[in-house]
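Severity: low
Component: inverse-folding endpoint
Summary: output formatting inconsistent between runs
Steps to reproduce: submit the following structure tokens with default settings.
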């Protein structure tokens, strides 16, 4: 793992519409390049907001985002689109795109104004669909496929961008076991090729299954961050979720259990 921070967040503060409730509160982080990083925390911790700030969809009230050592504010939208891809939890799709047409949208950062996709763009898109096991869906309308299939198609569109950084918001939340396994395998392969993968989750099991680096958040603050083996502790989990848990090992793998419940 390359420990150099490809994403550096410096004293970030963010609130919505000036309501003075800080969703991100003086948050500073270094996210290593070429690693899989999980941002773990309960609902409302600020995880999705943090991804949107990194992507430039939201502007912080204070602080700075550095991407590969460069201020985010100095990068053009095209530069940002070539550097970072986002797989959201869900997306409203207003047009009846086929899966192939929708994934082709990921090639937009490489096209000129009003230019149509070329042979290389189609080749790249078909290759991505094949790698994710989605070839049979390419002529189906995105609005007619299942939620799990749509999640994989959103991943395909982001991969068609060929980003150096891939952000995913709760990527396993709508997936069955087969698609979850496929997604995790793809993310491992991307990291092996040097892509920086950052995903949010409220499920410790999702983080344990794949992450190398862990960031634990609660109420817009970072409670702990570092290599997963050092950061995933019962004390940190209790502080993050505010509920008693135990951390045990099963087949040499950490497993998080709710502590004895008094029903």
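Observed output (run 2 of 3):
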């Amino acid at each position: 793992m390359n420990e150099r921070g490809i994403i550096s967040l410096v004293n970030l503060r963010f609130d919505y519409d000036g309501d003075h409730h800080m969703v991100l509160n003086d948050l500073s982080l270094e996210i290593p390049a070429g690693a899989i990083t999980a941002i773990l925390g309960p609902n409302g911790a600020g995880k999705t907001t943090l991804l949107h700030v990194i992507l430039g969809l939201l502007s912080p009230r204070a602080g700075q985002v550095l991407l590969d050592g460069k201020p985010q504010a100095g990068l053009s939208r095209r530069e940002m689109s070539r550097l970072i891809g986002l797989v959201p939890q869900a997306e409203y799709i207003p047009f009846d795109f086929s899966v192939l047409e929708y994934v082709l949208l990921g090639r937009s950062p490489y096209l000129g104004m009003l230019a149509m996709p070329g042979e290389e763009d189609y080749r790249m898109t078909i290759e991505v669909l094949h790698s994710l096991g989605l070839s049979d869906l390419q002529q189906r309308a995105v609005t007619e496929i299942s939620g799990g299939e749509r999640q994989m198609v959103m991943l395909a569109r982001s991969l068609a961008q060929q980003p150096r950084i891939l952000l995913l918001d709760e990527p396993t939340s709508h997936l069955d076991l087969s698609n979850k396994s496929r997604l995790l395998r793809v993310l491992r392969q991307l990291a092996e090729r040097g892509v920086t993968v950052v995903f949010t989750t409220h499920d410790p099991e999702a983080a344990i299954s794949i992450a190398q680096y862990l960031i634990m958040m609660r109420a817009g603050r970072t409670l702990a961050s570092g290599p997963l083996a050092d950061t995933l502790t019962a004390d940190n989990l209790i502080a993050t979720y505010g509920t008693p848990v135990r951390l045990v090992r099963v087949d040499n793998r950490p497993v998080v259990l709710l502590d004895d419940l008094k029903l």
